[in-house]
Specification:
The chain is an alpha/beta fold. It is built from 18 helices and 16 strands. Bound molecules: pyridoxal-5'-phosphate (PLP).
């Protein structure tokens, strides 16, 4: 098979995401035959360095042998099981480890980032309702925020291109000024700008705290805003302000979690007062945590008997439709017995983030959580939030679910990913790697048409001054010619590579990016 065979078939059968399909008349799709490490290979020997981690998800390369091995092992044990009333080892171990890493717990699972946002928003709202403050129903987010594209998540997303069309469907939310330092006054430091923006947050909450449930933020880096970066001081102050006005703080670490910003979770950096100390790690304190079993609601399964239910709209005689209904199995409704007995074991030790006391009320995780292998998301929260749902009354529980909640294969991929972090000292190793890339990128930083060159952890970005129309599309195509997968957002070019990138590959990335810049005017 050749690349072109796949192109036509894909364009006829697949509705590609985040795309104007008509653009593929002139912008060819890239069919990928296989991936290995940093590289994606097409069907004709072409290769591309995946410098954006396949949309910010891949951490340790494509077809990573260790994650592959874990998944192969898991495949022969358990692929998936209902998580209401049942549990399994990968989900328990993952929940324990995420709890130890974040200082939060009661891991609630979804399938993708947007569902994690939905879960956090619903939990916050429901917490206030269960706690006798049902008037707290509103959400605030930062200007240019991105929290996903389902209707609830889009309601707190402030990207006009994604949001404006659907505005009539969305619940009103408020955006407060972003501390993204590209918007600072000339001469104003990122720290001073963060303080000024925090003052706006305070003013807003002084007036609106009574009806505000939560403030949702992307800690340190606003990804979809074009890698807008800001000072950790903003998170420190936001935490204090939210505490003062009794508003939840939701950390959307979907993009920045799992080492992207230089610490395991971006929010940890709010604990460190001197930026020189950003990476200091303290020995974890010992603490015993309280835990309680979760309550689960009933579920009913009712399958339809055709491959897809809608096929039955094709059957004209309803007598025919039910001709086979004699078989009782077809219409059977089964209500599984629900047990509330999910004993949970909590680790005794927690990380520095909790010791220092600055942590969000909710943390949303996805993207890198499974190493970029399988769709998985999680929301962790505090004991206090959890306890507000723990009740004799069913409706006070969190009656939310997705079919693939806590999928065993996805959890196992996540465990293998955490193993790599531990065994390879990844956070530490990334510091040296990041220093190398920043150094290697000096010619980019010095380039006359490069503005706002910036870097946080394993993310680099800059704005390219260019008069080329459709800059991002043209840049993307030119980059492919240089064997690079780069996908600028507007005029913002960014690198967000898998952590396994080698020095040679870094040099290749920088050299190719410079060549593309030279080709565009
Ligand atoms: C990608 C992203 C989401 C949405 O995740 P999906 O898996 O694409 O639904 C939410 N928040 C942030 C910060 C993201 O970067």
């Amino acid at each position: 098979m050749k690349n072109t065979d796949y192109l036509q078939r894909s364009l006829h059968s697949v509705w590609h995401p985040c795309s104007q399909m008509k653009q593929f008349e002139t912008l060819p799709l890239v069919p990928v035959a296989r991936g290995e490490g940093m590289w994606l290979y097409d069907f004709e020997g072409g290769r591309y360095l995946d410098a954006i981690s396949s949309w910010w998800v891949n951490l340790f390369g494509h077809c990573n042998p260790r994650i592959n091995a874990a998944l192969k092992d898991q495949l022969d044990k358990l692929e998936h099981v209902i998580l209401a009333g049942f549990t399994h080892e990968p989900v328990i171990r993952l929940s324990e480890r995420l709890s130890a890493l974040t200082g939060l717990g009661h891991c609630f699972y979804g399938s993708d980032g947007a569902s994690a946002t939905e879960i956090a928003l619903k939990m916050s709202f429901h917490y206030w309702r269960n706690s006798g403050q049902p008037e707290k129903t509103r959400f605030i987010s930062l200007q240019n925020s991105y929290h996903g594209e389902t209707i609830g998540a889009l309601s707190v997303t402030d990207v006009a291109l994604f949001r404006d069309t659907y505005a009539p469907l969305l619940r009103q939310s408020t955006q407060v000024p972003t501390p993204d330092w590209r918007h600072a006054e000339a001469g104003e430091s990122p720290h001073a700008f963060a303080e000024r923006c925090a003052a706006h947050l305070r003013t807003h909450l002084e007036q609106h705290h009574a009806e505000t449930a939560a403030f949702i933020v992307e800690p340190l880096v606003q990804g979809a805003a074009g890698m807008g970066m800001y000072d950790a001081e903003y998170l420190r102050q936001a935490r204090a302000i939210c505490d003062e006005f009794k508003v939840h703080l939701i950390a959307d670490e979907i993009a920045v979690g799992f080492g992207r910003t230089g610490t395991m979770f971006a929010f940890e950096q709010a604990n460190v007062h001197s930026s020189a100390d950003t990476h200091a790690e303290t020995a974890p304190p010992s603490r015993t945590r309280r835990s309680a079993p979760a309550e689960s609601g009933g579920s009913v399964s009712c399958r339809t008997g055709t491959m897809f239910a809608f096929e039955q709209a094709n059957v004209h005689s309803s007598a025919d439709t039910h001709a086979e209904a004699a078989s009782p199995s077809r219409t059977r409704r089964s209500a599984p017995v629900e047990s509330g007995d999910s004993a949970s074991c909590r680790p005794d030790t927690l990380l520095a983030s909790e010791q220092a006391g600055i942590r969000p009320d909710f943390m949303c995780l996805s993207k890198g959580i499974s190493g970029g292998y399988l769709p998985l998301s999680a929301v962790l929260t505090t004991d206090e939030v959890f306890q507000a749902f723990y009740h004799d009354e069913t409706a006070k529980g969190f009656l939310h679910s997705h079919s693939y909640t806590g999928n065993a294969l996805a959890c196992r991929a996540a465990l293998a990913t955490l193993d790599i972090f531990e065994q390879d000292g990844v956070i530490e190793a990334n510091r040296a790697k990041a220093a190398y890339l920043t150094q290697a990128a000096q010619p980019l930083r010095d380039h006359p048409r490069v503005k706002n060159f910036r870097h946080t952890g394993m993310i680099w970005a800059f704005e390219a001054e260019s008069s080329t129309p459709h800059f991002s599309r043209v840049f993307y195509q030119q980059a492919l010619q240089h064997e690079l997968l780069l996908r600028p957002m507007g005029n913002t070019v960014y690198f967000m590579p898998p952590y396994i990138i080698s020095h040679e590959e870094i040099d290749f990335l920088v050299a190719g990016t410079l060549k593309v810049l030279e080709q565009l005017c």
